[in-house]
Every structure is written in structure tokens, then in C-alpha cells.
Specification:
82% of the residues lie in helices and 0% in strands. With 178 residues, the chain is mainly alpha-helical. It starts with a helix and ends with a helix.
Length: 178
């Protein structure tokens, strides 16, 4: 990360700050090569990471890409990537446009499927919970149901103090009189 990302990011910032076109081009070539390196690294990490000195070779390669003496990124870009990208540019652009269109359609479809799944889950949960409440209420006798307090309208409920509050009131009254 330090060699491959932080160092180049800082020097890219410096190139932007100084508005040096030569440095812009150098760092743009580096980032293009590094993006390709990152993709290939993901695959090679899975397949050949067991190879002796694999990680050391990766670090050496990134340093070679960065070095102003070897100009590795510039060499790879000019000799391989630029000709390849130039010859395939139209096909790549068409593929990106198609991917964007498909991506939008796919996101809309996933969104619809997600909403349908969430709605189905909510309805199923509501039906199951309603059934559980119904079964619980059926287990009560009519006498149990008529003794539940709080069914009468709010304005008609008699004011009742809690038993603990009565005890505290009595205790505080006896303490203050004593």
C-alpha cells in the first residue's frame, strides 16, 4: 500500500498542484498500469501465492513501476497497453455502454425482487404473529379476558395508585411524623 498507493497518490497530488503536464502524463500512465496490475494480482494471489518469494517479487515489481530510473509504468504503457487499448477502444466503449444499460435494468429488477421479497416476508410475519396471538387468546378463559384491566375507555378508567407507591407514601409519612 505504501509503495503502490500512498507514494504515487502523493506525487499525483503534487503534479496536480504544480500543474506540470509531464508529471500528469507520468502519473496517469502509472495509475493505468497499476489498475491492470491490481486486477492481475487478484487472480495471481489465488493461484501462485504459494510460489517462493512471491510477495517480495510483487513489491519489487511495484518499485520497478514507480522508479524514475526504470520508468517501468511508462514502458509497459507505451509498449503494450496503449497499442492494445487503441486497437480495442471502440469495442470497449460499446461494452461499457451495454454494461451500463444492463446494469440499470438489473438494478431495477433486483430492486423489484427485493421489495417483493420484503413485502412477502412482512405479510407472512404478520399472518404468523396474528395466528400466534389468536391461539394465545383462545387459551384464556372468558373469565380471564373479562378481568383484564385497561379495556375500558381512557376517560372511564378509575385512578389507581400502584401498591408500591402506596407503601412508599405510607413509609415516608411515618418517617416525617417520627
Amino acid at each position: 500500500l505504501v509503495f503502490g498507493m500512498l507514494y504515487p497518490a502523493y506525487y499525483s497530488y503534487k503534479a496536480v498542484k504544480t500543474k506540470n503536464v509531464k508529471e500528469y502524463v507520468r502519473w496517469m500512465m502509472y495509475w493505468i498500469v497499476f489498475a491492470l496490475y491490481t486486477v492481475t494480482e487478484t487472480i495471481t494471489d489465488l493461484t501462485v501465492s504459494w510460489f517462493p518469494l512471491y510477495y517480495e517479487l510483487k513489491i519489487a515489481f511495484v518499485i520497478w513501476l514507480l522508479s524514475p530510473y526504470t520508468r517501468g509504468a511508462s514502458l509497459i504503457y507505451r509498449k503494450f497497453l496503449h497499442p492494445l487499448l487503441s486497437s480495442k477502444e471502440r469495442e470497449i466503449d460499446e461494452y461499457i455502454v451495454q454494461a451500463k444499460e444492463r446494469g440499470y435494468e438489473t438494478m431495477v429488477n433486483f430492486g423489484r425482487q427485493g421489495l417483493n421479497l420484503a413485502a412477502t416476508a412482512a405479510v407472512t410475519a404478520a399472518v404468523k404473529s396474528q395466528g400466534a396471538i389468536t391461539e394465545k387468546l383462545r387459551s384464556f378463559s372468558m373469565h380471564d379476558l373479562t378481568t383484564i384491566q385497561g379495556d375500558e375507555p381512557v376517560g372511564q378508567r378509575p385512578y389507581q395508585t400502584l401498591p408500591e407507591a402506596k407503601k412508599k407514601t405510607r413509609a415516608s409519612a411515618s418517617e416525617s411524623s417520627g
